Amino acid sequence: MTSQPTVKTLLILGASGDLTGRLLLPGLARLVARGRAAGLRLVGAGSDPWTPEQWRERVHASFEAAAASAGPEGKEALQSLEKETVYHQLDVTAEGALASLLGTLDGPTAVYFALPPRISQLACESLRPEQVPPGTRLVMEKPFGSSEESARSLNQTLVRLVPEDHVHRVDHFLGKATVLNILGLRFANNFLEPVWDRHHVEKVEIIFDEDLALEGRARYYDGAGALRDMIQSHLLQIMALLAIEPPATIGERDLRDAISAVLRASSVPVPYAASTRRARYTAGQAGGKDVPDYAREEGVDAGRGTETLAEIQVNIDNWRWNGVPFILRSGKALGAKRKEAVVTFRPVPHLPRGFTGVDSPNKLRIGFGPDTLRFDVDVNGPGNIFSLSRATLETELSGSDLLPYGEVLEGVLAGDPLLSVRGDTAEECWRIVEPVLKAWQQDAVPLEEYDAGSAGPAAWPTAVPRD
Ligand code: NDP
To answer: pLDDT averaged over the chain?
Structure first.
């Protein structure tokens, strides 16, 4: 499904920033090159005194990869967007500055806040509702607030300016293909639904391990850590999709209502020393590189005790999932990349006597990027058919031809908030993890260590590499 923009102008605040250059503009370029952003105007803004040429050069550099693989029409579309793009120098926090710029743009406009979170908040607070032209969309990056209360306060600021369905809280993990693949698997197959509950599922693990270490991102990461960076946002969203009740439609209202309901039923059980773990890496080799001790990485404040690996158990207290642990784990500088959800089913109630060999639980593994599906089953072995052996049914799921930020932007430009995090959901995600963060700050859970390049602390059950 491709959609053409209803938005006429994309205004990127934070034109010189890392997100804009590395992710947003390349994502936009793919969209443009595929003819999926016809008629769009691009406007950059930032505090640097750039000339229009300097901005165009930046856009050109970020468009290059997409242009190289584009056909003649795609190249022409990219060149035309580059030629017409304009740049405005402004301090977005200055009284009236953003409002004046909004008043000059050809709307409807999508305002992308590619700014430090505090600056985004000040910029929104500087606007009055009557200064925001009708149809404007506000696109907010993560982290969305730093606590339940701050997320609520930011939500109140935003919905004073535009309706909730015109606010796009970006979670680039929620790429359309991945989301739709989970929903398709769950709700377009009759065999799965009867076993998708506490009677048949023993546990669900959602793992996002990276082999990369800090990669120079201490300024952001050391203040965040693995729990805030990955679990509070992305992994809770994936958990919700795996756990939701069947929605009547996959329209934004039905789907986001279902997500919200699941998150409202979710919490991390106490004591946190039993339901959560945290660790940080020491020197080693990961991702093909020598990695220093995290505490010695440039820009890290070792005394902060930031975790680079986090794991929490979430319980969903409703009829379907009561008693089934959802384990969410993410970390850096690990031995292997692993991005998947693993649903482990309960053992058969009785294995007929006479069978020998493996009797291991069925596992359904949903891989993210590339999206794959693997199903581990026990079958009769070759030769001696009484001896069970493990077979894996595996298939690759359809992906997207856009980069993750291309998918994000396509939704924004089409005015479709389906893949954006709704305001109440953003607050719920903080409500779930905030008590854990507080307990960790008070050292109620020890900060363990693992060698960079290992599978994590050996005693962690999820440290077992994928089998
Ligand atoms: P950067 O620090 O690289 O860029 C921030 C931008 O904001 C700069 O262009 C800066 O311009 C501009 N800026 C700061 N203050 C003002 C102001 N008062 N008026 C106008 N412009 C201003 O940050 P990132 O690009 O890394 O991050 C931006 C947002 O995206 C953050 O919320 C971050 O959490 C989020 N994010 C970033 C990711 C990434 O990989 N970078 C990934 C996911 C989310 P100048 O330097 O000229 O002041």
So the answer is: 94
Any ligand 1 atom below 6 A from CB of 11: no
Catalytic residue status for 200: no
* The dihedral formed by the CA atoms of 366, 369, 372 and 377, expressed in degrees to the nearest 10: -40
**Are the beta carbons of 16 and 50 closer than 8 angstroms?**
yes
Compute CA distances 71 → 5, 177, 179, 401, whole Å. 21, 24, 29, 15
Structure tokens at 357: 């060999």
- CA 288 to chain centroid: 25
- pLDDT tens-digit series, residues 187-230: 999 999 999 999 999 999 999 999 999 988 899 999 999 999 99
Task: Tell me the β-bridge partners of 335.
Answer: none
Amino acid at the residue 67: A
Distance 17 CA to ligand 1 centre (A): 5
Shortest-distance atom of ligand 1 to CA 13 = 21
Which SS3 state, helix, strand or coil, does residue 109 take?
strand
Pocket test for ligand 1, best of 12, 13, 18 (most atoms within 8 A of CB): 18
Task: Give me the torsion for CA of 64, 66, 71, 73, rounded to 10°.
Answer: -80
Minimum CA distance residue for ligand 1 atom 39: 19
| Residue partners of 271: CB distance under 8 A and separation at least 6 | 444
Whether ipTM > 0.90 holds is yes
**Cα distance between the two ends of the chain:** 36
Non-local CB neighbours of 130 within 8 Å, separated by 6+ positions? none
Is residue 226 exposed (0-12), middle (13-18) or buried (19+ Cβ within 10 Å)? Answer: buried
